[in-house]
Amino acid sequence: MEKAERTNRLVRPFSLGLTLSLYFGSMLLYNNKLLPTVTLQLPNRGLAFGDGFFETLIFTAGRLRLAADHLARMQQAATALYLTLPEALATAEAMENTLGRLAQANHLPAARLRLQLWRTGGGRYTPTTDTAEWLATAEPFVADDSIIKKADFALETHSIYSPLSFCKGPQAWLYVRAAHERQRRGLDEIILCDAAGHVAEAGAAAIFWVKDDVLFTPSLASGCVAGVRRAQVLRAAQAAAVECREDLFIKEQLLGADVAFIVNVAAMRPITQLGQSRFSQTEIPAFLAQDFAK
For residue 145, is it within any domain? Predict the structure, then answer.
């Protein structure tokens, strides 16, 4: 009898959970429910395999900035990972309304939002479902358009092109390594190249430069993220009839630019110096000034 009881205790099912909360008084949005804390059930495929992706979004003036661009990238990421987007995030309007509730619940007129999606269920590498769970968090957003005074190329990490390099999450370790190197070297920004030496992107932003009135940016073949602000800059250039070249470029082509700047959903920042090279201009191209404020 004693042996049987010990055996039953060993095989009895159990569940584990991971409880999350932010600073006191803040609210989270978990699967479309506003909660002060969230308990994630384990096993969790996002934690175990990185089986998902995330988006960083800006909610300001009652609108979700570049909602259609975020949705397009999310749809592409979900397709690549064989996931189905939840109904609350399935259209630009639905996503704006859903995430707007989170900003309002946290009393944030300007909010920086992080939206994390991952596949439900357990298993090993082989998934058992295409259903996604999601968690959104909010923090105050303060724009930073300051000039980058000291940037350089990464020495320890390079970008890697893959079927998922266009989205955020699956290759986040690259940017963690790059940020660590940037901090250790005392840089304001770090520029990643691919293994062949082609310029790819900044540590958390797309990179553009202008030479003789032509706008340049690395193509997605470099392994860079398909940034939503990157897409907006390309549209703005086309609308202004500015010649734009999207290709694989070596470092020397960037170093020879008249002006260089980085962009992400939160900011657009010019670069003063890259390595030992100083750019002759630090003014953002005029055709972008009004468009970027949207």
Answer: no
Q: State if pTM tops 0.85.
A: yes
Intra-chain end-to-end CA distance of the chain, in Å: 73
What CATH number has the domain bearing residue 228?
Answer: 3.20.10.10
pLDDT digits (tens, 9 = 90+) for 210-244: 999 999 999 999 999 999 999 999 999 999 999 99
Residue range of the domain that includes 268: 151-292
Number of domains in the chain: 2
Kindly indicate the confidence band of residue 11, based on its pLDDT and cuts at 50, 70 and 90: very low
Q: In the listed set 102, 120, 140, which residue is the last one of a domain according to the structure? A: 140
- Order across the sheet with 206-211: list the strands: 244-247, 214-218, 206-211, 259-263, 268-271
- Please give the pLDDT value at position 210: 97
Instruction: Give 8's contacts (C-beta < 8 A, 6+ positions apart).
Output: none
Q: Would 146 be classed as within a structural domain? A: no
Among the listed residues 138, 167, 144, 117, the one whose alpha carbon sits nearest the alpha carbon of residue 59:
138
Q: 200 and 129: one domain? A: no
Whose tokens are 């409880």? That residue is 19
Model pLDDT, residue 93 = 97
